[in-house]
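Annotators were shown the component list below and the corresponding predicted structure, then asked to write short factual statements about the assembly.
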Amino acid sequence: MKSIKNISRRSFVKSIGLASGGLILACNTSVFSDKEKAPENLINFNPNLFVQLNSDGSVILIASRSEMGNGVRTSLPSVIADEMEADWSKITIQQAVGDKKYGDQNTDGSRSIRYLYEPMRKMGAIAKAMLIAAAAQKWEVPTSECSAENHFIIHTSGKKVGFGDLVEIAKTLEVPSDEKLTYKNSKDFKYIGKHLKGVDVKEYSNGSAIFGLDKRLPNIKFVAIARCPVTFGTVKSFDKTRALKVAGVLDVIEIPRIEKPFGALGGVAVIATNTWAAFKGKEALKIDWDFGDNKVYDSEKYMNQITKNVHKPGKAGKDIGNINKAFKNATKTIESTFQLPHLAHAPMEVPNAVAWVQGATCEVWAPTQDPQSARKEVMDYLATTEDNVTINVTFLGGGFGRKSKPDYVVEAVMVSKAINAPVQVVWTREDDIKHGYFHTVSAQYLKASLDKNGKVTGWLHRFALPSIVSTFQPGVDFAAGFEISSAANVPFDIENLKVEVGQAPAHVRIGWLRSVINIPHGFSINVFADELAYAANKDPLEFRLNLIGNDRIEDTNDPIKYDTARLKNVLKIAAKNADWGKQLPEGHAYGLAVHYSFYSYVASVVEVSMKNNKVKVHNVYTVIDCGTVVNKDTVTAQMEGAAIFGMQLAYYGKITAKDGAIEQNNYNDYKMIRMNEIPKVHVEIVESAEKPTGVGEPGVPVIAPAIVNAIFKITGKRYYNLPLSDYDLI
Amino acid sequence: MISLQINGEKHSIDVAPKMPLLWAIRDIVGLTGTKYGCGIGVCGSCKVLLDNSPVQSCMIPVSAAEGKNITTIEGTSKNLQLLQNSWEALNVPQCGFCQPGQLIAATALLDKNENPTDEDIDEAMIGNICRCGTYQRIRKAIHRTVELKKQS
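Structure shown to annotators:
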């Protein structure tokens, strides 16, 4: 059985030096926790927090980020191994607990490789330098005569010594300073940029991988929590009589709301000997709720309101040139309004956590994207110090942003403390659909002017959506800067451009979901640009390339440059791979979309058919330029998955609220894409030596607009609102 | 007491007869490879073989499984093992959570159909959701398994 092993917070750091990423480089202690046993009879060498070399030659590498299908337990350690010249077959991966010493562990924002590629190379380079120095000392030769290759140090004379045999000497050496480190030339990479099999694929396939839901402790109690149907509503009173009669139910307690962004929602917790009893007990509760202010939330009326708000001037987010003048002088103006609903993350593994509070200490096992954030919440709740809280990271059965919000961890800690026992809090699928941190709901209004040649002279983008910031600062009712940027940075060569935001108060917890604000903006911008192409009587591909215009670096006020040449390049390759312009079967058409997000460039051309007014997607040609690639297989898999994720939100994604309560329940009415609906997804990765950028999210935003654009080509009808199932097209 | 035969092993458990087989397997017997995904029989994460037929164990009362042979992802069957090899070879899983259910559904398919078409695969796998979207690789891995069987 494989559970992710975790390193102890108590690892004693002897000498520390901070790397650029805030990583503590040097220590001399086992990567094993106090409770675990290091391999017996082995001496080990720990050149830094991420590497342990044992005297038998085995190597343990640390994964500091969470594994949720992103392949990070393979990719990050493979960077260390490559630079260290370690033999991949001698490596086991160990999962880090939540601890600041590992630097930022928040597995979110498609940034694990972007943030950690260089630091991980450095971890490998340090180990390599120390092993070379150890061999030089052993042989009494200059280090310049020694090199590392595939788990050996080799001398120019030809003699060699295995890594494991250098442990005793290496562990006595000083950690070298940065300027003494040497790095491999990229042409010599053995793992980086190649197709590497996932390190956990066997355990996933034989059922032995331990997800949060699979964690067990002796005498563990299972807990289900009834939460108010309306966000932030509270318990007035409850009757637990019937719940206590359910066989296996042990106790019923009230837990209060913790008024913090990641605090527990509060409710009534049913404690039982098994999960099913906890679920049945929860169903048997009678609770009188005080629904609170959000009872007014009716998502249909709300959509009408925010749509009104984008049909009048809003707060300026960007204003270049003179948009009014452009509209006045136009040969033609086009305007469209877009409406997109809330979405739920719905990862296959529901939110859950195991917690055990024992006196002043607490240990947690949870599928969390952000163990440091979980640690902070637990520490705050228990009013204790970091040292007393251990957050073990299990495998995550999907995350998509949901599991970077550790409210479910806090719940488990609250119940464990209250009943003085180890507990596992398990959300039902219904809880997950109804009580998440929803992707925002949005109304957008776009207007553009064309001159007599069909050139776009003015572009107005006005949108209203409840901000993620509202979750952190209640009352915020306008989009924040980061939610404006993907509209403001539209990469079009247009003289007059204005972005405005309208008012949109939040009535549910708003959170980030895979691709975040790029979902609404990528949709409206790509659909509207396609609409303009037809208004100008141009081919959408040619029109779009012209709209992007000349090769240039966009002024995005960001250290990472937005290069329009790379943007056009992915679009051109996608079009080439699809053979854009070719004669397709009757009733079939291509649609395209291109979008820059998480610093990566992605284009998709999709082939769609309409038969009996039903949509089918046959092929998706996706091209990504994400700079340097660590694992090609992972990037390919992420693009394949992103196509399905994008199709889901295009086809079915819609969360609605009535009287403040979410109306959807489960996968029966919040539907997912299934095997019979899938297209063939063809992925090309642009070869690049640029710095690595995002992979997990940027494949999503292009899919829905490309589908809508293809449907227009076939039917002449443009769908501005999602999901398409609302129009009986699925 | 209810007696269950899981992966060839007998387990006598003291649970309510109405308890879904899923929870008996996970919480009482302690085999956690079978997953909870929806609890209403629409996602396939909890699939097991009941006398060689794929069932959603969240919908079957434990009493209905008494006297039958239950195979979970931890169990052995020739097609299951071959499929697992293909899953590994093609790097099918992303988060991995739904894959036990996918593999059980695929095993049931190959047990009754030696040479499934894409349509057969659609039909056999339609009850299994993968939120990561690994369907394309699942399909390829099933085809690969069939091809390797033909060659051997």
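Statements collected:
1. The longest strand of chain B covers residues 2-6.
2. Strands of chain B lie at 2-6, 9-13, 47-50, 53-56, 69-71.
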